Amino acid sequence: xxxxxxxxxxxxxxxxxxxxxxxxxxxxxxxxxxxxxxxxxxxxxxxxxxxxxxxxxxxxxxxxxxxxxxxxxxxxxxxxxxxxxxxxxxxxxxxxxxxxxxxxxxxxxxxxxxxxxxxxxxxxxxxxxxxxxxxxxxxxxxxxxxxxxxxxxxxxxxxxxxxxxxxxxxxxxxxxxxxxxxxxxxxxxxxxxxxxxxxxxxxxxxxxxxxxxxxxxxxxxxxxxxxxxxxxxxxxxxxxxxxxxxxxxxxxxxxxxxxxxxxxxxxxxxxxxxxxxxxxxxxxxxxxxxxxxxxxxxxxxxxxxxxxxxxxxxxxxxxxxxx
Length: 323
What we know:
This protein is mostly helical. Helices cover about 75% and strands about 0% of the residues. It folds into two domains: about 1-75, no CATH class; about 100-310, MetI-like (MetI-like fold), CATH 1.10.3720. The chain contains twelve helices and no strands. The longest helix is centred in the last third of the chain and has 38 residues, at about 225-260. The chain is globular.
């Protein structure tokens, strides 16, 4: 297990390194590039060259990259080009807001989808199963932004049940109850697509496990159905679901970005759109790296959970199977 974790950590570091290289090169290849954004307009050629030297932009690209990575490792995300504000001061509060939205959506999805999918595997083609199938088709087919606008028109503007947008009402900053009310609509939008997927995965995985010989043997021995489902079948059925959850993390981040813009949620996705419009490349680079780290960590955690859930996986042992 220790050997496997070290190997996966090294792979994760390599992935993040490659992402930093690609991000840095793409930003420098973008129209205008960081050089034009960081230098004030109307400068004489001599002053222009002097500012480039002061900012280190006259150095070769590899030297600039090494200096940028060194700053990242020290926790220095740089400064915005126009206002010269610390990128970290803009980014960290937005990351916290995005994690609140993503965490709530993920929790709601798992709490609803997994039990429902497991139940439907024991009541195949019943009313509950058909209802779940309808919701799944709806979740797969409906665009996120369109569903968000529908909820705003119906539940906010029409019925006035929930706030239209933002994270807090004016004067109620810090109120948990107010935050909950603002979370309902964006979490509903963000959860719908994943709810559709996870119900299908949970149902299909449980059906496959319930057809195995050892399940038939347990039933033949007179083991109660509840015990067969939750003690014998569920653990093995969770294995592919855990893998899917780890792979879906990038999709959850992307969905959060769309949802944040629809509901004016002050998160990282909305900040990315704003900074892309303003061509604040230092902020875009920081958001890309932070997102990559979150995704890599999620994938690593999924691999660890895979090994915990399935004792047959002998990680890090010679001749064993890696997750």
